[in-house]
Amino acid sequence: MTPSPVWRMRGGALPLDRPVVLGIVNVTPDSFSDGGTFFSVDAAVAHAGALIAAGADVIDVGGESTRPGATAVDPADEICRVEPVIRALRAAHPATPLSIDTVKAAVAETAIGAGASIVNDVSGFRLDAEMGRVCAAAGVGVVLMHSRGRVTEMAAYGAAPDDDVDVTGMVRDALRVCAERARAAGVPPEAIVLDPGIGFGMRTAQSLQLLADLPRLATLGYPLLVGVSRKRFIGEITGVDTAADRDSGTVGAAVAALARGARLFRVHDVRAARRALDIAWAILRRVPDGGI
Fold first, then answer.
1. How far is the C-alpha of 37 from the C-alpha of 54, rounded, in Å?
2. Distance from the CA of 240 to the CA of which of 10, 167, 189, 287 falls in 20 to 30 A?
3. Beta-bridge partner residues of 100
4. Quick count: other Cβ atoms within 10 Å of Cβ 164?
5. What values do phi and psi take at 226, rounded to 5?
6. Catalytic site includes residue 104
7. Is residue 12 part of a domain?
8. Which of 81, 230, 266, 274 is catalytic?
9. Percent of the chain with pLDDT over 70
10. Rounded Cα–Cα distance for residues 168 and 277 (Å)
11. Is residue 191 part of a domain?
């Protein structure tokens, strides 16, 4: 199956003829790099506006942290965090697609009603049996990420596979199941984007291997999104302990992922990623056979 040239979502489609950047807006008190910074509606909306001005194609709003040791959030509390932000963003930026980052169907349904046109599920529809039905009925685009365990476990090294496991083969097989699950629920293939879950339950060497092996994941026939922004493996390689200081490493990983076949990038520092990816894309398009 050849990947769709566009990403279908509620209310339209997003062309994939250039790198697509998703700007992160965390309305949580405990996210690993910016917890509490944009917790109020006004702060979140102002930050999203800055990300859009810097070149974000999509704004991804999350109300539950997946950092190691994070505390699970009740659906009602998560809705209280994200719904007013999405409503305000839809009013302020009606042309920008909004994504809700959640594993809960009730949160997704409320966010869609408030204006979200994409559901980004880090469990790949594993954790809530209703998620596929909700997304199919609403006609939203979906991001299906590979992960293992519950939200509070999936980012920890304790969830990492053994070193002798073919990690790319494992992730590819799991993503195939995620896509089949979504399609069985009625989500059309052109609405599906796959995310290998870089850094989620993966040691540094395994994250690097997944990035190098993106062409193997592309054989599934869906566009690939990578979320490498400020991840722990970047800190381990560069020696940068503070997550918010890892944006240079993030750009390097994103450009490498672009060259290996990724088309969508979820980042904190949109301006740096947008400029670097656009330059890399202009060069890669001139390489024989696309170089990509």
1. 19
2. 167
3. 61, 119
4. 6
5. -120, 140
6. no
7. no
8. 266
9. 93
10. 24
11. yes
| Residue 205 to residue 3: CA distance in whole angstroms | 28
Residue 292: its pLDDT value, please? 54
What pLDDT score was predicted for residue 256? 98
Cβ neighbors of 281 (< 8 A, separation 6 or more) are 18, 19, 258
Q: Is 266 a catalytic residue?
A: yes
Instruction: Select the more confidently predicted residue: 11 or 289.
Output: 11
In the prediction, which pLDDT does 38 show? 56
Mean pLDDT of 227-237: 95
Which 8-state DSSP code applies to residue 87?
A: H
Backbone φ and ψ for 31, nearest 5 degrees, come out as -65, 155
Domain extent for 34: 18-285
CA 61 to chain centre: 10
Q: Considering the domain boundaries, does residue 6 fall inside one?
A: no
Q: Which of 10, 231, 246, 274 is catalytic?
A: 231
Q: What is the CATH number of the domain that holds 159?
A: 3.20.20.20
80 Cβ contact partners less than 8 Å away, ≥ 6 residues apart: none
Structural domain count, the chain: 1
Q: Identify the band that residue 36 occupies on the pLDDT scale cut at 50, 70 and 90.
A: very low
Whether residue 145 is contained in a domain is answered as: yes
DSSP string, 224-239: BEE--TT-HHHHHHHT
Local confidence band at 40 (pLDDT 50, 70, 90 cut-offs): confident
> What three-state secondary structure class fits 251?
helix
pLDDT of residue 154: 77
